Amino acid sequence: METTKTRFINIKEVKRDWHLVDAKGKILGRLASQISRYLQGKNKVEFTPHVDMGSFVIVINAKDIKITGKKLAQKKYYHYSGYQGGLKATPLSKVLENFPERVLEKAVRLMLPKTTLGRKMYKRLKVYSGPLHPHSAQEPKLIDIVKEREEA
């Protein structure tokens, strides 16, 4: 009786694809979780947790992302300078208005592993607020990774 062996992928065997995602009208959290799956390589059949197998992901139209609920007014981003009284809170609406890329970048970064491998994965994420990007030479594949929720 022959048993099946688990085959682990070597880093030399990893093929990195380029994916293009249009964020227009997509919900922030749902989009970020799907992007993190592509960055980790969990969408591939031969996924191996200890090998960096992820693809490059280019996100366009980050300024047109959809925020649900009362998050625009209630969600805050915090930054601490290290000094007493140095805690700064910025509401999501202001960050989205000034730096729309940072909102999606932070959401994806927090969904990746908090290890050196996760930091390498994060470097493959490219986010642009408008429809133009400088990565056309890589011929990214346009993917629709999040289906809009049907509202009755």
At a glance:
The chain has 152 residues and is of the alpha/beta class.
Supply database-style keywords.
four-stranded parallel beta sheet; alpha/beta; 6 strands; disordered C terminus; two-stranded antiparallel sheet; 152 residues; 27% helix; 5 helices
| Low-confidence regions | 148-152
Number of helices: 5
Radius of gyration using CA atoms only: 18 Å
Mean pLDDT: 92
Order of strands across the widest beta sheet? 5-2-1-6
Percent range for β-strand residues: 15-25%
SSE succession: EHEHEEHHHEE
How much helix, percentage-wise, in residues? 25-40%
Gap between N and C termini: 54 Å
Structural class: alpha/beta
The major sheet is characterized as: 4 strands, parallel
β-strand number: 6
Shape summary: globular
Polypeptide structure, described:
- The structure is a single chain.
- Helices cover 27% and strands 16% of the residues.
- The strands form 2 sheets. The protein has a 4-stranded parallel sheet, with helices on one face.
- The protein is globular and about 65 Å long.
- The chain is built from 5 helices and 6 strands.
- It has 152 residues and is α/β, with parallel strands linked by helices.
